[in-house]
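Our consortium's second objective concerns turning raw sequence data into structural hypotheses that experimental partners can test. To show how far this objective has progressed, the report includes one record in full. It was chosen at random from the queue rather than selected for favorable results. The single chain below, 172 residues long, was entered without modification.
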Amino acid sequence: MRYLFLAIILLTLVAAGTYVYLGGTREPKVSLETTAAPLYLAGQPFHGAVRGEAFGQLFRQAKDAQTRLHGDLANLYLNDPESAHDTIRAFIGLALADTAQALPAGFRYRLVPAGQRVIAARLRGVSYLLSPNKLYPAALEAIKAQKLAQRGDFYLERFGTGDESEVWIGVK
């Protein structure tokens, strides 16, 4: 019994250490912004269930294309999966500086025009595995605190190569 207690304490310390190492104690910076420049996305559209195999495959293809295209992983969600009962419309891919690069088979460009009014939540030094669970609650809390209305058709996630992550949620 004594060894079981020690094992539980040891596992708890390892889990807490891993969480801290991955940046779990950092808090996002949140601001209300209007995007100044257009954002070019290269990827593939998706419409269907979040839990489907096709959805995960798009993420893997985007990650594979990242080494060749040198962009940030970026996902544009065009509806709220919570209200759509896990059925989403999305564009999964990469954010690129311009549209001059040749794209892999099946990829296409999509433009997010400038002038989008968004709540932007940003984190630095946090693993992309943890960042969405920190960014979304912070952004949604800011929307509530500032008494803004969500658009419901604009959610953009962007994961940089240096553990820089951000979420934009469209507001009216």
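The partners drew two points from this record. The mean pLDDT is 84. Residues 27-171 form a domain with the Multidrug-efflux Transporter 1 Regulator Bmrr; Chain A fold (CATH 3.20.80.10). Both points have been shared with the crystallography group to help prioritize constructs.
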